[in-house]
Amino acid sequence: MSRISGFRLLTVSITFAALAAACAAPPPAARPPAQPQEQPTAPAAETIKIGALYGVTGGMSSIDAPGLNGMKLAAKQINAAGGVLGRQIELIAIDGKTDQTATTNAASEMINVHKVVAIGGLNDSTFALAAGPIAQQAGIPFVTAGATLPTLPEQIGDFFFMAPFGDDAQAYAIADYAIDDLGAKTAYMLVDQAYDFTTALAKFFKERFTGRGGTIVLEDIYKSGDTDFSAQIAKVKALNPQPDVLFISAVPSEAGLTTKQFRDAGLTQPIISGDGFDTPLIAEVAGEVADEVYYSTHAALDNPDPKVQNFVKAYTEEYGRGPENAFAALGYDTLNLIADAIKRAGSADPKAIRDALAATQGFNAVTGEITYQEGKRKPNKSVTIIKVQDGKYSFVKEIKP
Which tens digits make up the pLDDT trace of 309-365? Predict the structure, then answer.
C-alpha cells in the first residue's frame, strides 16, 4: 500500500470517530429566542408656531400683559386637549415694549427667524399699523386682539383681521349710554393726540353725541406722557354751567392719572371713555376717588355667562389671580380663533389659515360671537359698559349692535 492510501485511510477513520462522538454527546443547550430589534422612536410632530406680539413693558403693559397671559392659557388648554391637527401649538412671544420700532422688529423676527404661520396680539391701533404691514407683505395672517381702529383691515390688507369691535361701535355705545342712562346733554372732551385710537374714539364719540342732540361745550387736548393736567382742569372749572359728563379719550397709562387729578380738583360729574380705561390703573392710581367712571369695553368679567365664568376660573387657577380686564379674554379668544381656523383649514399653511379666518361664522368667543361678513375682517360684536365706583369694577349694561 502506498503512503497516500494510508493517509486516506487514516482520514476516514478520524472522520468516523468524530461522527460517533457527536452522536454520543448531549444536545446543545437551547438558545433563548431572539429579541426583536428596537425600532427607532418616531420623531414628534413639528409644532405649529404662532406669534404672540404684545407690549408687555411700557405704557401698554396693563392691558398687553393680561392679553399675553390669555393667549398662553389658550395654548395650554389646546395642547392638553391634543393640539391642532395632531400637533402642539408653540407660542413665540416677543415684547414690543410699547415702541413702534421694537414692535416692527419683533414682527420681523417672528416671521423670518421663527417661521410663525400666524401672529396674534397687540391692543393698540398705532402698534397694529406698525406690525400689520410686515405680516401682510410676508403673507402671514395677523389677528389683532384689541386694536379697534375700524379701518385697520382696509389700511393693512387682506391678511389682517380684528378680534374686537371697532372704535365706532364703542364710541357710539358710550355716547348712547351718556344720553340715555346718565341724562347727559352737554359734554367736555379731553383727547390724547398721540394715538390713532384716542383720536378715532373722540371723533366717533363727538359724531354720535352731537348727532343725537348733545353739545360739546369744550374740546381740549394733551399728548401721551403728560403727567400734569392742571391747565386743562382749570378750563373745565371755569365753565358755567358745568358740562354734564367728562369724556376723556386716553390710553391706559393716563386713565388712572386723569381720573385722580380731575376728582382731586373737585370735578364730580361722570367720567366716560372707551376701552383705554379698561385697566387696573384706575383703581390703583385714583384709589378711593375712582368713582362715577364709565367706559365701554369688550366683556364684563362678572357676567354670569358660563363662557365668561369658565374663562375666569381657568385664568385664576393658572395665574393665582382673576383676569385683570377684558384684554385677557381678548388674548384668549384670539388664539382660539386662530387655532379654529387652522383646524377648519386642515393645514398650517398661512394662506389656508387666512382663507379659513375669512370664512369664520358664529365663532363663540368669551368676548362675543365673531363672524366676518364677506369681504370684511371686522366683527360686529356687542359692547359692554362697565362702572367704576370706589375702585370697584362692575357690569352695567350690554349694548347690542
Answer: 999 999 999 999 999 999 999 999 999 999 999 999 999 999 999 999 999 999 999
The CATH T-level fold of domain 48-165+302-370 is: Rossmann fold (3.40.50)
Q: Are strands 160-162 and 245-249 parallel, antiparallel or unpaired?
A: unpaired
CATH topology of domain 168-297+386-399: Rossmann fold (3.40.50)
What's the rounded Cα separation, in Å, for the pair 348 and 357?
Answer: 12
Cβ atoms of 248 and 174 within 8 Å: the answer is: no
pLDDT reported for residue 44: 58
Q: What are the φ and ψ backbone dihedral angles of 295, each rounded to 5 degrees?
A: -145, 155
Q: Rounded to an integer, what distance in angstroms lies between the CA atom of residue 136 and that of residue 138?
A: 5
Residues in the chain: 401
Distance, C-alpha 292 to centroid of its chain: 29
> What SS3 state is found at 309?
helix
Tell me the residue ranges of DSSP E strands in 149-287.
Answer: 160-162, 186-192, 215-222, 245-249, 271-273
Rounded distance between C-alpha atoms, residue 71 and residue 277, angstroms = 21
DSSP 132: H
The residue ranges of every structural domain in the chain are 48-165+302-370, 168-297+386-399
> Given this chain, do its domains 48-165+302-370 and 168-297+386-399 carry the same CATH topology?
yes
Closest by alpha carbon to 131, among 168, 163, 99, 154? 99
pTM: 0.86
